[in-house]
Amino acid sequence: MTRMSTLDAATAADSVAPPPRWAIWAAHLTTLVVLPSGLWRIALVLGYPAGYLDESFADFETPGAKVWMLTLSVVSELLAFLTIGLVRPWGEVVPGWIPLIGGRAVRPMVAVVPAAVGAVALTVMWANIPWWWTYPHNDMTDTGDLVVGILYQPLVLWGPLLAAVTVSYYRRHRSPRSRSIES
Question: Which positions, given as ranges, span the membrane (predicted)?
Answer without folding.
Answer: 22-47, 67-87, 108-129, 149-170
